[in-house]
User: Fold this.
Amino acid sequence: MLTNIDIYVINKVREMRNTKNISQVTLANELGISPGFIGKIESNKYRSHYNINHLNSLAKIFKCSPKDFLPEGPL
Assistant:
């Protein structure tokens, strides 16, 4: 089961991806993972989520800090 923090991070990454007009396929290629995995992460049907290494790689892609994917305080 996804936790509140998992859902927050997933939504934040999706929001940033959409803002930059980056497709799931392009993001997956940048991360070196399968496009299907991004689809599973962004779907409510699966328990897939980003890990801390993904967040570090995403920060490089989006040119931001890994903390930009996290909430200001605990959920």
Summary: The chain is about 55% helix and 0% strand. The two ends are 16 Å apart (CA to CA).
